[in-house]
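Researcher: Good morning. I'm working through a list of sequences from a screen, and I'd like to move beyond sequence-only analysis. For each chain I'm collecting a predicted structure so we can compare shapes side by side. This is the next one on the list. No need for commentary yet; just the structure.
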Amino acid sequence: MTPLQRYIAEEIATDHVDGLLSRREALRRLALIGVSTTAASALITACAQDRTPAADSPVTSREPATASAPPPGSENAKPTTPVTWAGPRGELQGAWAEAPNPRGGVLVIHENKGLNDHIRSVAGRFAGTGYSALAIDLLSGHGGTATFADPAEATAALSKIPPEESLADLKSGIGEVQRRAPDKKLAAVGFCMGGGMVWRLLDAGAPELAAAVPFYGPTPENPDFSGSKNVAVLGIYAARDDRVNATEAVARAALERAGLVHELVTEPDAEHAFFNDTGPRYNPTAATDAWARVQDWLARHVG
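Model: Good morning. Structure tokens for this chain:
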């Protein structure tokens, strides 16, 4: 498996361990990305052993996904519009949210579920705070996320896209934000798999960016961020996210070696994907704090 496939496979196994997926459904999803039943059983066992005591109780018994208050930033969110542009291998799709008199531009990179309503709402929230935002669809080469009736099949398709192709699409997305928000500084913000993609952008060199915010994204092996010298990085982690947290030290060391302005924040009592208000791990307190930190970071480094 590629590192991305391994990451997604571990996430599926962890969802089962946490009681979010039945064993049958977990095995089905793992099979979609090419994991045999024997290997899947071994992976589930390993993930169960790796969970910390603090995460032993089912996720669904903690904070419910619904909250009395709206998700942070939603009160002023702007609508999004479907857009397309010419990418390196064909047409790319996305959702564009335009801010009046934008202070800057943001490329939003989705989770391993593709470009869905939640990610569109995040782009709209950025526009509501003054940053025009483009949420890219990394499944554009498959016709877009909307062509998948089964979200698990969308995840499987994402896992099989060669990393260099996704990076090229993301670079094209940055260029599209530059075109739509000319003469403005830019940032890239990603969640889960998208957070990992932000780290990969920095590793590949992203001098076009002024800021980057990976939310609970795994750090690539042996990263070199020296090609992203001018990027101010805000890394956001969750205290109960052992898998991703295991790569935090690697990210910190690489940021220090490259001399990048950075801050790494761990939200207490929060799970992986705590910012997704449509998911079972949503944590309103952590999400609100993280959103405020992101806004402060963008104000300081983007405009």
